[in-house]
Amino acid sequence: xxxxxxxxxxxxxxxxxxxxxxxxxxxxxxxxxxxxxxxxxxxxxxxxxxxxxxxxxxxxxxxxxxxxxxxxxxxxxxxxxxxxxxxxxxxxxxxxxxxxxxxxxxxxxxxxxxxxxxxxxxxxxxxxxxxxxxxxxxxxxxxxxxxxxxxxxxxxxxxxxxxxxxxxxxxxxxxxxxxxxxxxxxxxxxxxxxxxxxxxxxxxxxxxxxxxxxxxxxxxxxxxxxxxxxxxxxxxxxxxxxxxxxxxxxxxxxxxxxxxxxxxxxxxxxxxxxxxxxxxxxxxxxxxxxxxxxxxxxxxxxxxxxxxxxxxxxxxxxxxxxxxxxxxxxxxxxxxxxxxxxxxxxxxxxxxxxx
Length: 355
Known about the structure:
By secondary structure, the protein is an alpha/beta fold. The protein has a single domain, classed as Alpha-Beta Barrel (TIM Barrel). Helix content is 48%, strand content 17%. The strands form two sheets. It has an eight-stranded parallel barrel, surrounded by eight helices. A two-stranded antiparallel sheet has the order 5-6. A hairpin with a 4-residue loop joins β5 and β6. α6 crosses α7 and α9 crosses α11. The model has no long low-confidence stretch (mean pLDDT 93).
């Protein structure tokens, strides 16, 4: 059995809550399959944004939507103990039921922000594996004891009369490097790749995920490969790419400044170098995201492979990602009137993929 091809929207938790809720409701109305919240971090304060709790925001969204799937895309076990993650997952299960998707990632930038993981003998792969084991163990409802290299848990069994949902949601591993990407296939229900994912990086990532799945006897065709992809849309091609240019600028500057090692293959697959991106990072520091966007040349934007431009251009690019092996587009939409952009996607792009 193969999984369906889904198209969703991902948004960072760095904007006012009511604006994020309005965007989620617009995406549901437009017909998107999913709405993901990625946890922002205090680095964004340098550029006029405030980090907010993604788990809290998604709970608010769950209470105000009915159909659209909702995902943590992602939260980090470096900032929440896995038992706490399981507790917050129960809230989402009560509010969203089977619509809830759980994404976990080490989040190299967050690790740097809070001083975790640097110089430790236990690497992110161990942290992720133990976190998934504990989250599943706690949500399973049986008596659960765990002693790992990083985490421990001792949870009594859930009584039959307890008023709470049961079951374990799909758990996805967010990863850029090969070790965690293989773990997504062996341990998780799929893989989530970072922003600035290109079709070439999708192919690289799928190979790793499938290798991990085969080592444990899992069917790769049953696994999700979700990719965060920069995007924007408009009736006019140049206007429709303005948001993607600005979003690409923010992320390229971010990667230059924060996660050089982790982004190597990501940028290599895009044909980009850190030297090529340094002017964007410099402009981001001096003049903010608008100035950085002006430093994103047409050639750099082309290499980023955004889902951007006219509806026809967006359809063509989504098909390119699907052919590369992406099964779940996680569109990071930016630019003016994003709720209007969501509506245009719903009217002129999504029907093509529902036939």
